[in-house]
Amino acid sequence: MIKQEKGITLIALSIAVIIILTITGMIVYSAKDSIYIRNLTNMQNDIANLRDKVSSYYSQYGKLPAETEYTNTSNLSGVIGANDTGKFLIIELKLLDGLTLNYGQDYEKYKSGNYTNITDLTDIYIINENSNNIFYVEGIKVKQNDEIKMYYTDYTEADNTKVNVKTLDQWHTEEGEDGVTVITNGETKLKIGDYVNYDPTTDKTGNKITETKEDGTVQDRTYTSPAGTTTKGDGEREKGNGMGGQEFSISANTNGWRVLGLDENTNQILLISADTVKTTSNGYFYLKGQTGYQYGPDELNDICKMYGKGKGATGARSINIDDINKITKYDPTKTGNGTVYGAGKISEYGNEVTYTKNEGNISYVGTKNGNGANEDSKTSGLFRYYDQDYSIWKSLATTEKKIYTSTKYSYYPETLTTSKDGQPVGIKTNSKEYEMLFSRTSDGQDYWLASQYTITGAGYVYFGISKVSNGQVNTDSNNGLYISYEYTNMGYAGVRPVVSLEAGVSILGGDGIDRKFCKYSLENTIELNLKNFK
Q: Which residues pair with 181 in a beta bridge?
């Protein structure tokens, strides 16, 4: 018997090698495919997380967590849809709490400024300002059927359906049945002038807002407006009111808070104090001279800031002339009688006047009217002006030229002209808007507007702060706090804080009817029952 050797044939070995190579190829292909899928899933999870965080941020602050424009989006052309209009912005990851991402490492370079061109940053997430669609600039490469395909978001075809974090359940304006604009979130309707039970003295945790003095005593929060520089002349002015130290307390009686309007940029409701706020000695707030003009708006806003610490508030400032004009719909270039304010005068609104010092006199030429002339000796050849570029006061030198634009105007809100007897084209005198802003200014409720103005004159300029007085938007009675030929004036009025409420605030009971107060609450918090208003 011949002994047979055990082993494998060459054919069997070849078949085995082929099978092994085939299996190995399948494993390699499957591994690569798995990596593609994992990368794509990671990006899709990132975008889903970002979408949730961006929506939450918008609900709280009324704006997108993005400001810096990203311009090189040519590689996204295949997924940019009809609604992706306007700018693409870098998402500010630092503003989004509790966020963990798989990609977006170039945001650290962007945050530290460690780049030459912003378009060099590709490992970064961007958002379209109008559609709010989110994209990953670098994209994810996926191989499908031997073809490489790029993914830049969690969908593959251009999205023409707008996905916007601004939803109808957030505050917006609509025209009511009676033609009056209402502010609504789809359930509650508010009108300008409605009362809301906001309390600036209680913070978000329900605690009384206080401050501790140097001697350790605890008192209501206050703000003291400093005098600053009280003398006149060239040079810098120390911040203040130009008059003297004046103290305000958060406990000052405002007689409630009323709806002023809606900030469309932030979707935040604006409230205004029902009455003017006065000093702790129950006096008006005084502004005087160069310092009063230069720092008046800053001081008014600083006084009002302490009223923006209450529950539901994001901050506070002083009312300004733009707030008034938005409600009255006043336009100084086309007043109630269809003409520009001050038409034909050297002080016509928008008139640019060039002042020059020649041989001790001040000559002037306006772009809209007036051929210029040598002014008489009442200017004494002195022309002191405020240089906004350097925040300093200067005297016009011989042959030096200085251009000033006239920005002053005044009007009655019912006629939108300087005459109370004109055609009633503005707000009605029996309206909530009029009652809230104008009706009480004839009995000691005059108030400052945090807005500067200049009046161009024949060889001189008035510098002043606007106010509401005697039922009209007016300048102060002396036509300015300072006149360029070295004349100082003083003005006084009350202060009216404007508070911004968080975009997610809910106001209950405000149905647009005449009721004294509406309760308001914050989403995901208990309802506020601060006072039992009837």
A: 175
Cα–chain center distance at 437: 22
Q: How many CB atoms lie within 10 A of CB 374?
A: 14
Residues 265-276 as b or e (16 or more Cβ within 10 Å = b): ebbbbbbbbbbb
DSSP 119: G
Rounded distance between C-alpha atoms, residue 171 and residue 184, angstroms: 5
- Contact in structure between 190 and 182 (CB atoms under 8 Å): yes
Cβ neighbours of residue 372 under 8 Å, at least 6 residues apart? Answer: 363, 364, 365, 366
CA distance 230 to 395: 18
Rounded to whole angstroms, what are the CA distances from 159 to 41, 81, 133, 164? 19, 5, 9, 12
- Helix or strand (DSSP H, E) at 519: strand 519-522
How distant, in Å, are the alpha carbons of 32, 197, 288, 518, 533 from that of 510?
A: 60, 11, 41, 5, 13
Q: Which two tokens stand for residue 293?
A: 């003009």
- Among residues 171, 8, 87, the alpha carbon closest in space to that of 503 is found at 171
The percentage of residues in the chain with a pLDDT greater than 70, rounded to a whole number, is 80
CB atoms within 10 A of CB 21: 10
pLDDT band at 163 (very low <50, low <70, confident <90, very high): very low
- Predicted TM-score (pTM) of this structure: 0.68
> Residue 483 and residue 453: Cα distance in Å, rounded?
12
Dist CA 512 CA 184 (whole Å): 10
What's the rounded Cα separation, in Å, for the pair 90 and 69? 6
| pLDDT at 166 exceeding the cut of 60 | no
Backbone angles phi, psi at 347, to 5 degrees: -95, 15
Task: pLDDT band for 199, please (50, 70, 90 cuts).
Answer: confident
Which comes out higher in pLDDT, residue 81 or 409?
409
Residue type, 334: K
The DSSP 8-state label assigned to residue 528 in this structure reads P
**Residue of 510, 503, 500, 508 lying closest to 526 (CA atoms):** 508
Q: Which residues pair with 374 in a beta bridge?
A: 363
DSSP letter string over 292-327?
Answer: HHHHHHHHHHHHHHGGG-STTEEEEEE--HHHHHHH
Distance CA 186, CA 183 (A): 9
CB 272 within 8 A of CB 468: no
Q: Tell me the CA end-to-end span of the chain in Å, nearest whole number.
A: 119
